[in-house]
Structure formats: C-alpha cells, structure tokens
Amino acid sequence: MIKFLFNARPFRLGLAAVSSLSLLGAITATAQAQSRNKVVNVYSGRHYNTDKELYAQFTRQTGIKVNLIEGKDDAMIERLRREGANSPADVLVTVDAARLIRAQELNLFRPINSAALKRDVPANLRDPNGHWFALTRRARPVMVNPAQVNPSLIRTYGDLTRAELKGKLCMRDRSSVYSQSLTADVLQRAGKATTERWLKGMVANVKQPFFTSDTTMVRAVGQGDCGATVANTYYLARLLTSDNATDKANARKVKVVWVDPTHVNVTGGGVTRTSGNPEGARRLLEFLSSPTAGEGYAGANNEYPVKGWGNNPTLQSFGTFKATPVTIQQLGQRNREAVQLMQQGGWK
Amino acid sequence: MESTALAAPQPTGVSPAAGQGRSGLILAALGIGLLALLPLLALFWDALFAAQTSPLGLGLDGAAQIRGTLLLVGGEGVLGALLGTGIGWLTAVCRFPGRRLLRIAQLVPMAFPAYLLAASLIDWGSHRALRIHGLGWAIALLTLANYSYVFLLTTESFSAGGRRLVEASLSLGLGPWTSFFRVALPVALPAIGAGVALSAMEVVNELGAVRLLGVPSLSAGILDRWQVDGDPQGAALLSLVALAIVGVMIALERQLRGRSQRWNLESDNERPFSWPLHGWRAALAQLVTALPPLMAVAIPALWINEGWPALRAEPLGELARLTSRSLTLALGATVLTCCGALLLAIIRRWSPQPLIRQLSFVAGLGYAVPGSVLGVGLLIIGGPLLMSPLLLLFWGYSDRFMAVSKQGLDAALERVPPTMDETASSLGHSWLAVVRLIHVPLLRGPLLMGGLLVFVDVVKELPLTLALRPFNFDTLAVRVFQYASDERVEAAMAPALLIMVLGLVASIALIPSLERRSGS
Q1: For residues B243 and B67, what is the distance between their CA atoms, to the nearest angstrom?
Q2: Residue from the list A82, A102, A220 with its beta carbon closest to the beta carbon of B126
Q3: Are A135 and A289 in contact (CB under 8 A)?
Q4: Under an 8 A CB cutoff, do B432 and A78 touch?
Q5: To probe the interface with A, which of B25, B128, B228 has the most A CB atoms within 10 Å?
C-alpha cells in the first residue's frame, strides 16, 4: 500500500500539499502563541487597506501587534458568539448601528471605562455603559441631478413623497442596512403612522427596480437615468476622485442636498467580553477614536470623523449638515420594526 | 459491441473483497459520513434547542425566496442541461473545424465565479445606463457559470461510449440528430442527471450573484434569518426547504440513472469514430460551442477594459501571498475530498447494506447547505473545542464539495462492469488492490475531473473561507469580496484576474484527459 501511495502522482502531490499546510498551521499557531499582552486580535467588518496602515502605526507607537480577520459583519458576530469563552478576539469592529446593538444584546462586549474615549466620542455616538464606541460617521443625504429634479424641492426625507419625484426617485433595496437604518431614523423621529405614510408615498415614487449598490445608483443619477436618490456621501466622493474620467464627469452632475436633519450611521467597535488582552484592546480603540488616527480611519473611506468635519477636501466641498438627533442605540433598537414596516410598505 | 449495453444488473451487494479488510473500508466510510453529517446535526440541534425568539414560520420574505430559488433552479437546470449536453455531444462525437480547441474552451467559463460575472456585468452596464437586474439575468449568468458541470460529465460519457454509440447508430441507419436522441441521450442520462443535480445545488447555494441581481433566494433567506434576525429555527426551516429541493434533484438523477443503467466500457487504445459535419451544420456547431466561452471571457474583459487604471493598485508581494494561500487551501482540500469521494463511491458499489450505501448520499448533503450556514455548524462544534481554524476550514471544504467529486465517480463506476471487481477478487486480491488495479486506472478521468472541479470551487469559495479562516490569512476570493462589498469593483480586478488564471491553469491540466478521451 505504501509503495502504491508513493508511486501515485496525485498522492505525492497531496503529500506535498499536506506538508505545506502543516507548516502553515505551525506558523499560524506560533503567531497566536505570542505573548498575549503584546497582541490585539481584531474581528472587523471593515476592509480598507489604509486600516492596516493605521494598525501598523498603532504597533509602532505601542509595540502591540494587531492580528486581523476582516469579514462580513454578521458572520464576524456569529463567529465571536460561537467561539464563546475560547474566542481569541479582543476587539470587534462592525459597520452599522443595528449590528453594534445586536452584538451588545448577544453580550459580546465588555464595558470599558476610558476618559479618552468619553472625551473623543460624543455621547450620542457611544453606549452609555461603555460597551461600544463609534469610530467614524457615515452621512446619508439626498442626492439629485438638477437637470432632472429641482434641489430646492427637497428639504427633508419627507419630501421624497412629493408628486414631482414620481418615477424619478431611485432607492437602495430593503436588505441594505443603509435603507433599514434610514427608516429606523424616520421611525424614531416621526412615529409609526407617519413612517407608514412616508413609506407608501415614497415607494410609489420609486423607479423600479430597487438598486443593490449605492455606486451604480449614484452613477444613474449622474447619467440622468434617475433624478434623485438617497446615498452615503463616500460613494459620491469616491466617484469624484475616481481614475475613470467618465465616472468623474458624471459625479460632478450630482448635487448633495443636506436634508434637515440628515441621517447618520456609524462604524463602531468594542472590547470583547472574552478578550485576553482588554487593556491592549482599550488602547487600540482609544487610538482609533483619537482626533489624528480617527481622521485617518474615517478618511480611508471618505467618511466623517466622530467629531467635526475632517479635512477631506471632497467632503468639505459638500458643505456641512445637521445630523439626526437619533442616537445609535435608538437606531439599533428600532431596526427590526423598521424592516417590517418597509416590507409592508412595498420596499423591495 | 462486445461489452455494450448489458442488461442492467443489480449493483447492490457486489462485494468482491468480502472478508479482506472490508471492515476497515466500512469504518473509513462511516467516519467520512459522520464527519460530513456532524456540522449539519449541530445546526439542527442548535435550531431545536435555541430559545424561541419568534413564531416558527417562513418569515417576511420566505415565500418569495422559495419561489425565487425554484425559478432559478428550474431555469438554470433546463438551459444548463440543453447547453451542456448539446455541446458535450457536438465536441465529443461530431467532427468540425476547430472542434478540439472549442472542446477545451468549454473549461473556460468554470474559471469565472458567478458573483464575479454578475458584479462585472452590473458595473459595466451601469457605465452605460444599462440596468442588469432581475431573474432573467440571474438565470443567464448562472447558466453560463454552471453549464460546464453538465458539459464535463456528459462529454466524458459520450466520449467513453462514443465509438460504439456511433457504430450502433450506423448499423441502425441513423443520422447525427436521430442518433443523438435515440442512442446517445438515453445512455448519457446518468451523466446529464449528475451534471444538472450538481449545477442545481450550486444554484441553490449561490448567494453573491443573486443578491447583486436583486433576486430573492433561499440562500440569502437562510443567512439573514440565522445571522441578522437571530432566528435559527426559521433558518433551519428554510434550510429544510433547500434540502428538499436538492433531495428532489438527487432522487430525479437516481431515477434517470436507474432507468438507463448499463455497463459501457471502452479501452483507451481504441480510436473513436466521429460524425463529420460540413457546411452550415459545421458553422452552427462552431457557433453553439464558441458562444458560451466567448461570453464568459467577454464579460470580465469588457469590465477590465473599463477599469484598467486601477489594476495596478495591489502590491505584487501581497498578490503573491494571497495566491499562495488560495493555492494551498485548494490543493489540500482537493486531495482530501477526492480520497474521501473515492472511498464512498467504492463502498456504495460494494456494500450490500442499504444503510452503508446511503452514507454516500448523506456525505453529499453538505453541498446543499449554504456555505455560511455550514460555517456556523462547524463553529458550533469547533468553537468550544478550540479547534484550529485551518482544520475547520478543510473540514468545511471537504463537506461542502464531497458531492462534486463524488457525482462523476458514481456515474463513471456504473460503466465499469461489476464482473471485473468479482474476477479480481476471485483471484485473491484485497479490496485495496482491486481499487488500485481496476478502479483508479479506469476512473482516472472522472477522478481528475472531480479533483479539478473541487480545486476550482475551493479557489472561488467565499463564505466558508470568510467565516472560518485564521488571523491575517486573506485569500484571493476574500480580497475580491472585500473590495466588491465596498463597491470598489475596479480594485477587485487584480485578485479576480488571478482567480480566473488559477481556474484556467487547473482547466488546462484537464486537457490531456479530455484529448485522450476524444482520441484526437
């Protein structure tokens, strides 16, 4: 049998593969066995190359190495939950308010008391008990093509129901957390009955089908295929600074309309309940929310820092806005009800 | 026609190596079956005992999601069967200018993951105010991405029996069309069934492409119910519907196979005869066989042309690291899965115990569960046990893709007369010797093909890798996802291109086998 195994090419190949795998496994194991207080393990729902540069900067400053797994937010939460007490993760970073709240409800975060975090993150953007902290802000204003829709028609999200927008309004689909969070914002401020009316009127204006990505939606507004939409500013900023000349020219035709108030969602993070290095994890969060690194974290994706407007010239060209008074906690707690209302209102 | 179309004998209970270490074989098969089943059992256990958070039901979108998946499976199944079988027949048995090249070209679409085709086509269209959206586009793209399963299995079947089929047709005075429908098609039914079942499972599981195209699907429903709504019972209910669809596909395939069971073996040394096609017939054959691979190449090519300036964004060293990780994972998973599949196929052929034979079916069920849900199942087991993420990942890959390598083997084993096993064992050979001396040489083609399919699948695989990988261990597919999910499709181009290159290289490895089969 042994002779046969070694004579067969696929098996030899397999042997080589398995050996290299063991080597890889050994390397990984070594990496994980490094002294625990010199390593912070991060599960993150964000995926930007510049994030890695920031983590490297943190390592240079503190001597603490950052190990990283970037994946889908929901899958990262699920992994953390299933790993339970054995989880190697120290920090969980997710995008979207509802996910932060879900992670908190699943008891995945531990409360931390940090004067620096309290100072750098405004109260409405963090958990009162210190379970999680926002690290960047994502604004979702209305965007119009002035050749199609008069921007002065729209002052609030409520104006999306106006008859002038019939067949000209393009929206993101219901499964998008951006749409869900926007509806939760409206629901918290206006109540159920008004939200139901708003949803009905707005959906009646939507040029079907709903979009599955913000980029193609903003592009369609620039092309005049859609007259108005609601999208995160960083998608427009990205198109405006794109290497693609057509995209750039198109994006210039799109005007940001700062409705009052504008819906804001966040990227946020917290220290995991099972963290083996909570001290290092706290220091990483403090670093990421500090004014300098925080701007870098936000700037990676043309997002707004948690305080002020940052120094991104593209974002500055959009002007400033009045952010929603709804807290991240409220956005998260209203998410499920919002999704139900959206479904009943015909939001596909 | 020395060994063609023997009357269908009972495959059950053919146990040539009784008593000679067979208990070891059974134990190994039991082990594989158990490993395959464990994550699924863990999921259902979890669903049964999790705190009831909402009334048991299909959820807000359950009905639409079931309908969406059924339409996708039906549409892709019919189109994929037509395309795969047609092209399989044309390139295996007919002769026309460019046939060899076009046969090899059918491997090209396999290298392109459906989510990548969808993302690039949507992006390309959006630059031209063209909305690529909805069920029609989803069926078209999924057919393009998956018809190769049917092609590979049918062309293998047509080639293996090609010469005798054509001889039979000639002796009956049939032309190419009639011979296709009256002789070749019935013989190839198991392979067609296996191919369609495989592609149907792929469709049931497809997540990225259908989400991007805005089609409600079970795979998205299961994932959302589980992870977003925190409702494992609801997710398990939807999983059962998905399993039922796959179960029907497998039963259908078995039914077809049962009806057309015959042993049909051909020596590799014999040079098959083929039908010559001329004039418009040859032109039509060229068009039909060239169009799908051309389209599969054209979609990413147009997209790459659009976003060329961003292509150099990723540092070369990083790309090399991503590629080596993808390659290592795919090679390891391929070897593991092929060995397991061979064992299961053999035990299915030999064991008189219906229960043991069913193991082969059970071990294939992992293919029917969305990768991200299977990932949860593995985490339920591996999390508390502190299992290495890489180990869990290989477990997941083997569970997920066992069916891929097994389907072809099962279909191919049915062309090997059981008398060969019996003869060998009556000469005193052990089961391992029978496998080594008879099955491995005869099944080299299907084994290679199965291995290739698994390899390409693992390179393209996303949800398991994303959910289970260790720290600082991104692969090509993971990087593509990271860019694409941030809607920076242009930046995803370089790793996407490498996935396609790996897929193509793997496909090229199959050419000698295809060539030998076609006797060109």
Answers
A1: 15
A2: A220
A3: yes
A4: no
A5: B228
Domain limits, chain A? 1-33, 39-348
In the block, residue with structure tokens 């479904």: A343
CB of B201 within 8 A of CB of B278?
no
Q: How far apart are CA A104 and CA B244, in angstroms?
A: 36
Question: Positive or negative, the Cα torsion across A179, A180, A181, A187?
Answer: positive
Strands A304-305 and A142-144: unpaired
Tokens of B27: 């134990």
How many Å lie between the alpha carbon of A181 and the closest alpha carbon of chain B? 14
B514 pLDDT band, cuts 50/70/90, is low
3-class SS of residue A323: strand
Dihedral angle, C-alpha B247, B253, B254, B256, nearest 10 °: 150
Task: Please provide residue B348's backbone torsions phi and psi, each rounded to the nearest 5 degrees.
Answer: -65, -35
pLDDT at B443: 80
pLDDT tens figures, B446-468: 888 888 888 988 998 888 888 88
State whether residue B309 sits within 8 Å of chain A by CB. yes
B276/A contact by beta carbon, under 8 A: no
pLDDT at A139: 95
Q: Give A52-92 pLDDT, tens digit per residue.
A: 889 999 999 999 999 999 888 888 998 898 888 889 999 99
Please state, in angstroms and rounded to a whole number, the distance separating the CA atoms of residues B151 and A108: 48
- Residue keyed to tokens 């190949």: A13
Residue ranges covered by each domain of chain B: 22-46+56-294+313-518
The more confident residue out of B110 and A93 is: A93
Q: Regarding the domain delimited by A39-348, which CATH topology (the fold level of the hierarchy) does it fall under?
A: D-Maltodextrin-Binding Protein; domain 2 (3.40.190)
Superfamily assignment of B22-46+56-294+313-518 in CATH? MetI-like (1.10.3720.10)
Closest Cα to residue B114, out of B457, B519, B474, B347?
B457
What's the N-to-C CA distance of chain A in angstroms?
60
Closest CA to A174 of B117, B115, B220, B54: B220
Length of chain B: 520
The pLDDT tens digits for A188-207 are: 999 999 999 999 999 999 99
